[in-house]
Amino acid sequence: MTLEFSLTGTKLTARSGILELMDDLGRAMTEQPDMLMLGGGNPAAVPAIQTLWQTRMRALIDEGAAFDRMLGNYDPPQGNPRFIRALANLLRKSFQWDVQPENIAVTNGGQSAFFFLFNLLAGRFANGRTRKILLPLAPEYIGYADQGIDPGMFVACQPEITWPDGPDARLFKYRIDFAAVEAALATEDIAAIAVSRPTNPTGNVLTDDEIQRLSDLAKSHNIPLIIDNAYGAPFPGVIFTDARPYWAPHVIMTLSLSKLGLPGTRTAVVIGPEQISSAVTGMTAIAGLANGNIGQQLVLPLVESGEILELGPRHLCPFYAEKSQQAQAWVREFFTAAGVDWALHVSEGAFFHWLWLRGLGITTRELYHRLKARNVLIVPGEYFFFGLRDEWSHCHECLRLNFSQPAAVVREGLRIIADEAAQATTKV
Questions:
Q1: Which pairing describes strands 398-402 and 352-357: parallel, antiparallel, or unpaired?
Q2: 78 and 117 belong to one structural domain
Q3: Phi and psi based region of residue 331 (left: phi greater than 0; alpha: psi -120 to 50; beta: remaining)
Q4: Among residues 290, 256, 289, 137, which one has the least CA distance to residue 207?
């Protein structure tokens, strides 16, 4: 039997960057234990955090009734009412945000949240117009790229490249080109502005001023600003620089439990206008009936006490900051010794280094395949520049590296990448 898929089915089953990334990650974890995992976004096993979740699970089991309810009952599609009330109370008390339970909806992970949000706000409309999502700073998260049911959903702006300490320091930083953003808002039918903060893949944290300017632009155009806080503030708080958590009535914020060490629970939260949270709740009911209960129950007492806000500053941020510094030292050692013209994006948060291999003789997509043959997984940069209208050679010279793995894995992986990059560069 030969099956013919619908246009939507064909779109959602096509080979995509996020499918390749997650497929490689899953296979390596189960079938290739010797693979050096510098791809993917899996959090590290932070000892204090691991102990916390083990303790919480034992407490739920010991309670008996709470454990049975967690596994044996559906929550409402909006999420667990007690969890939602506790989160709204925490945000009002800690940040003075006017957030009520009606502003919150739980989803089965951040990927599901953005699939709902993007297709809710953008795409084809009954009056014949087609609206788009504006990414004010490319590169942007690989997981967004193929989420639009309708083609051409994203418009992205090329960033300004700055050198905070001068080019000789080999550390660069992307900044938003607001002239390009304003031009896109003037010429395209934009439904929403969307950013991740810290930015996945680069570890760039948009400054408070950049966020405020984006917020002001969104408000003036009567569209929402979507802020993806999968790694950011107020939790999990994997941020190495000063950054104020931001929300406003026209802002849609997403939070996730994954980078708190709970990726397997697939739990995320959408905070936004009541019309948005209500719509996301309805979409959850249709797509999955309800959300998973385990993540919400595990963190519930930490949300009620406010302790969830302390996990980042106390445990996660110091752990990942040290990992970042060590990986940067190895990059300097190996790539300099190999004679490769390299630069790193400044590391301001998340689990990644964004490596720019200037003058690389091949694309990073080809480099990815060569490294995979040597048991090293990375993520090629081409996947992160979707939505740009003009060709940019920079897109083919960058790659994302996860530095959260054990030190021996990161060190050996970086050594092999430097060797392979040197071979590719020599062949120009």
A1: antiparallel
A2: yes
A3: alpha
A4: 137
Residue bearing tokens 């499918």: 19
Summarised one tens digit per residue, pLDDT across range 145-176 is 999 998 899 999 999 999 999 999 999 999 99
297 has pLDDT over 50:
yes
The answer to whether position 390 is within a domain reads: yes
Q: Which domain holds residue 366?
A: 7-49+312-426
Alpha carbon 61 to its chain centroid, in Å, reads: 32
The single residue listed with the structure tokens 């899953």 is 26
SS3 415: helix
| Residue (of 38, 49, 26) closest to 237 by Cα position | 49
Clarify whether residues 299 and 358 are in a common domain.
no
Residues 298 and 175 in one domain: yes
| Confidence band, pLDDT 50/70/90 cuts, at residue 242 | very high
Which residue among 289, 307, 325 closes a domain? 307
Residues 106 and 132 in one domain: yes
* CA–CA distance, 76 with 80 (Å, rounded to integer): 6
Instruction: Specify the long-range contacts of residues 271-276, CB closer than 8 Å, at least 24 apart.
Output: 271/91, 271/99, 271/103, 271/104, 271/247, 272/103, 272/224, 273/103, 273/224, 273/249, 274/100, 274/102, 274/103, 276/105, 276/117, 276/120, 276/224, 276/252
